[in-house]
Amino acid sequence: MNRKNRPQRRGNVVVLSAFLMMALMAMVAFAVDIGYIAEAHTQLQRSADASALAAACKLPNLAQATLAATGVANENKTSITPALKSSDIVFGFWNRRTSTFTSPKPVGRPYNAVKITLRRTAANGNALGLFFGRVLGRNTTDVIETAIGFGDRGLCGPFIGIEGATVSGGLTTDSYDSYNGLYSSSSAGDLGSLCSDGDITVGGNADINGDVRAGEGDDVTLNGSSLDISGQIGNRATDLNLPPVDASAAAANNLNGSLPSYKPPMSGWIKPYNQGTGDFTLLGGAPYTLPPGTYYFHDMKLVGGSVLTITGKTSIYLTGNLDRQGGALVVNTTNQAGNLSIFMTGGTAQISSDNDFYGVIYAPNTPITYSGSADYYGAMVGKTLTIMGDAVGHYDESLDVNMGAYSYRVMIVD
Question: How far is 18 from 30, CA to CA, in rounded Å?
């Protein structure tokens, strides 16, 4: 029986093994290096997030925010995470309506956000080295992660009664952004919320374009005949922790002594500021223009059809009571709520509004009673807040960071 000659296959296994070894090495490179790259992304993102949050806590102070960002980045530094360069700390403005970050910030806007970027790149001279990638001709790869930290002061109010809030009548609330122009009902927002660390009662036929949030474990009572609340109704998870008013700087440096006299009808010239009592009083239908600046009074009393005119940036600190009644008018000719701030350390606030009011009242230790049917543009914070009548409250969203008094939280938004 003839045996056919078989071809020699010696060496084929070696060639096949070489190809298989290359494939195996490629798989190892893929598995190990991809895992290493994923871990690098995770570590860089974690460090960027922490740095952005730390920086956002210090806004709008850019120097302190920069120190906080670099400090936290150094604390999170590992063999993978790089040092944070100052050029990779970018401050700007976060628009919560459009979810966009703008840097440099628009003129007139505050710094309320920071963008942190961590880089392991060839251009940066610190590209991430690979273990087995060189088998495939790749020694390094670039890894970049970013985070935007946003400092939000608009999380609760703008109409706040810290220990409780009561609404009766036909209160209407909504919001607008004065940076984009004057209020328009066609573009009004839904941030006109009522907020408290205590109970909230809403009655009448209130129309709340926003949330109604009581304190943790406290009650929201709705007993109106026709209520419309667009947002959430419920409880806060944390306390507001709003700081008291510090009037020491205003007490030491103010324009009280330079205030001009005024002449009410049927009377002689009168000084509105009584240096003995520390009170500011307008009576008898008198018109009076308060020059822009900072003032420090005990009581402030506007009655009898008097007219107080505000023409520029004005801050008024009160250690006693605020009494605005009897048809008294406050006219803010700038139509900007941020140009009139009334800070109260205690006392009571009785406000009857007969004309549109642009301003901010911050009085965390003061019971506030607000009545009337005129529009209110700005924000209002009291120890307790009682709103009666058919008032209309328009929260000016541009106050979200400019008013440092509001409860503050930071978050990663991108």
Answer: 18
> What's the average model confidence in pLDDT over 36-54?
94
- Contacts of residues 406-409 at CB distance under 8 Å and 24 or more positions apart, as own/partner, are 406/153, 406/154, 406/155, 406/156, 406/157, 406/158, 406/242, 406/379, 406/381, 407/153, 407/155, 407/156, 407/240, 407/241, 407/242, 408/151, 408/152, 408/153, 409/151, 409/152, 409/155
CA atoms within 13 A on the CB side of 106: 11
Domain region containing 207: 158-406
Mean pLDDT of the residues in the chain: 88
Write down which residue in 101, 124, 152 finishes a domain: 152
pLDDT digits (tens, 9 = 90+) for 116-168: 999 999 998 999 988 766 666 778 899 999 999 998 766 677 899 999 999 98
How far apart are the C-alpha atoms of 117 and 197, rounded to whole Å? 38
Contact (CB, 8 A) for 52 and 65: no
What are φ and ψ of residue 144, in 5° steps? -135, 135
Give the helix/strand (H/E) hosting 132: none
For residue 231 the two structure tokens come to 């947002």
| Same domain membership, residue 136 and residue 261 | no
Smallest CA-to-CA distance from 373 within 228, 171, 179, 219 is with: 171
Sign of the CA dihedral running 203, 391, 96, 155: negative
The pLDDT of residue 11 is 59
Do 253 and 130 sit in the same domain of this protein?
no
Assigned domain for 380 exists: yes
* 179 & 136 share domain: no
Do the Cβ atoms of 250 and 294 come closer than 8 Å?
A: yes
Task: Please indicate, yes or no, if residue 9 is contained in any of the structural domains.
Answer: no
**DSSP E strands, 53-142:** 89-95, 100-102, 113-120, 128-129, 140-141
> How many structural domains compose the chain?
2
Q: Are residues 200 and 170 in the same domain?
A: yes
**Distinct helix (H) and strand (E) counts, the chain:** 4, 30
Considering the domain boundaries, does residue 268 fall inside one?
yes
pTM confidence score: 0.77
The H or E element that residue 399 is part of is helix 399-402
What does 244-275 look like in DSSP terms, one character per residue?
PP--HHHHHS-SGGGPPPB--TTS--B-SEET
Nearest Cα residue to 148 out of 52, 212, 65? 52
